[in-house]
Write a structure and sequence with these properties.
Order of helices and strands: HHHEEHH
Low-confidence stretches: 142-176
Structural class: mainly alpha
Distance between the termini: 19 Å
Largest sheet: 2 strands, antiparallel
Length: 176
């Protein structure tokens, strides 16, 4: 399955999780210890806003949180994710070379990387707000890193500073 297909699955799932995030959840810690729920949302809003124009072959724009102060963060998140998905589906998005923060990359490869980032951060948001996060197993091919590995190496370090009561275990079906 290519990155476009993966994002077609992951982005609606991310938006569903965002709809379940309440104001009281925003300060919750996440499995990625350096970010709260609000921090993960802002991180994804910022990157999604930068990546969407890149997939369209346009120069990335800098998103300023002050641009929409009255709009709830979760609504901004959903709008950005919808725009990102539209951009990935735009003509030529997967065929062009994208100047990513890590250097030039084929659009198709960059879409897979963005999908993996969405998978990991979806886990962060869902597990930190008491929501399910169960992407279909068939949405990740052998050439895509196993979802268990990012959760174990990026978001669940052995020395975790978040109290264990706030963590959700990695689903058994995602453990190698």
């Amino acid at each position: 399955m290519d990155g476009k297909e993966q994002l077609t699955i992951i982005i609606p799932m991310l938006n569903e999780v965002a709809r379940g995030i309440e104001e009281r959840h925003l300060t919750n810690p996440t499995p990625c210890t350096e970010l709260t729920v609000a921090g993960v949302l802002e991180h994804m809003i910022g990157l999604g806003s930068m990546f969407a124009p890149m997939f369209r072959g346009e120069d990335p724009t800098e998103l300023d949180a002050a641009d929409a102060p009255e709009t709830p963060r979760t609504e901004r998140f959903q709008a950005v994710m919808d725009d990102l998905l539209a951009a990935v589906n735009s003509p030529g998005a997967l065929d062009r070379t994208i100047q990513t923060p890590g250097g030039p990359m084929p659009g198709a490869a960059f879409a897979r990387m963005v999908a993996l980032d969405g998978l990991v951060h979806g886990w962060d948001l869902a597990s930190s707000t008491g929501q399910p996060w169960l992407p279909p197993r068939n949405s990740w091919s052998r050439s895509t890193p196993s979802p268990a590995k990012p959760f174990q190496t990026i978001c669940e370090p052995a020395e975790h500073s978040v109290p264990s009561a706030t963590l959700r275990p990695t689903p058994q079906r995602w453990r190698g």
